[in-house]
TrEMBL record:
Domain UDP-glucose/GDP-mannose dehydrogenase C-terminal: 343-443
Name assigned to this protein: Nucleotide sugar dehydrogenase
Record keywords, A-Z: NAD, Oxidoreductase
Similarity section: Belongs to the UDP-glucose/GDP-mannose dehydrogenase family.
Database matches in InterPro entries: 6-PGluconate_DH-like_C_sf (IPR008927), NAD(P)-bd_dom_sf (IPR036291), UDP-Glc/GDP-Man (IPR017476), UDP-Glc/GDP-Man_DH_C (IPR014027), UDP-Glc/GDP-Man_DH_C_sf (IPR036220), UDP-Glc/GDP-Man_DH_dimer (IPR014026), UDP-Glc/GDP-Man_DH_N (IPR001732), UDP_ManNAc/GlcNAc_DH (IPR028359)
Upper lineage: Bacteria, Pseudomonadati, Pseudomonadota, Alphaproteobacteria, Rhodobacterales
Amino acid sequence: MNIEASHHQSLRQLIATRKARVAVVGLGYVGLPLALTAHDEGFDTTGIDLDPERVNKVNQGDQVISYLAPGRIARAVDSGRFRATQDSAALAEADIVLICVPTPLTEAQEPDMRYVTAAAETIARHLRPGQLVVLESSVWPGATSTLVRPILETGALRAGADFFLGFSPEREDPGNDKFDTHTIPKVVGADDPLSLQLVEDFYRAIVTQAVPVSSAATAEAVKLVENSFRTVNIALVNELKTALEAMDVDVWEVIQAASTKPFGFMPFYPGPGIGGACIPVSPAYLSWRAIEAGSATPIIDLARTSNDAVPAALAARIATELIARNGSSAPAESQPLAGYKILLMGIAYKRDVEDTRRSPALVLLGELERLGAEVDYHDPYFPRLPEGGEFPTLAGRQSVALTAESLGRYEAVAIITDHSAPDYDLIAREAALIFDTRNVFEKAGIKVTGGRLVKV
Ligand SMILES: NC(=O)c1ccc[n+]([C@@H]2O[C@H](COP(=O)([O-])OP(=O)(O)OC[C@H]3O[C@@H](n4cnc5c(N)ncnc54)[C@H](O)[C@@H]3O)[C@@H](O)[C@H]2O)c1
């Protein structure tokens, strides 16, 4: 047996017997659930993160991600087969290394591959024959083979022969209580057959279904296509909302009825704009790479521009409605909402998660303040807005308690993020005017009795 076949055989064996040791680089929203899943399926797992606070909290079993099952992290730590560390030397001990570091955008809205490059450089320093490295971060098609592979090959080891390399896109959906890391099918791709078989073997061992594709670039494209599909459809449904409203037709009712078609239609819902580290970002990776490859993605680009414009349009709509009802005592035209107090419900970028990355709620808050309003927020996940976020001027703001008395202080309450915890019955009774971007009240059958409801 040649040397690559023997490395391949022994790693297959280690995976089959759950003796392979797994290292996950980056213990964020993606890496931590993945590391826990590898552990839960029987693998000795080490999570490596640069952030000492994250490492300490994980090792103490703290509930650092609210929607993970209570006690799951603590149970993993107690098992003795799961740990977090800042020390990258742990990479040398691992048989399988999974990279889950951020892939944001630069200021110029282009792929920021700094974290992937840095992680690959660290892995390269510890790389040893027989290891399998899998990139999970969302990247442009070609990044694994043209960016990560050359870094890993700076020493004497070669991918597909001395070590193995693949890509498997993350499909984590924070807060989704129907699917989790274990039950979401996993697409796997690699550029050589030995690597592909190992990536497939490993994911088959930890998730219910692995879906092999012919190359790493194909697997990378799968992720960007999934997110671009969402981006375009969200832009479309927000456009439809505005157009149908002008015709006095309720888009929510239309979507509900259209969803009864058993084929060819998939419901998307209007909202206050898109957020998170994923949907607003991945399509930009695809557009950037398309231009580099001599092509273009005008539909995706238009959808991105359209989605980015939603929070400002919503602020303008709220201003128009408020002024039409109550008039404006604004000293300047640029501040038509001077004197108005508005409460935003939900500041996280989506329901039931403690994540404000690229949250449209924060953009809206800034816009309403620019128009002169005094804006407060209520969000059970953010008693206080943290320092060091993307919106530094908002750091330190505190969530307002939801009471009949506090609700009485605002000219309007706007439902932005439809967390499940707040008492919407109370809002329905006490708020003077409600702007509902999520159709919360109608969906839950809550009758608004205190003031007026405007679906925006
Ligand atoms: N959050 C999601 O819902 C989601 C869903 C699908 C895909 N993704 C993709 O998954 C990737 C990771 O996203 P995330 O949301 O988990 O990010 P995150 O910011 O929550 O976590 C990333 C972690 O990596 C750590 N880190 C950064 N560089 C490191 C390094 N060199 N070594 C060790 N640790 C390092 C950070 O300290 C942080 O804890 C991104 O490419 C993202 O686009 C995210």
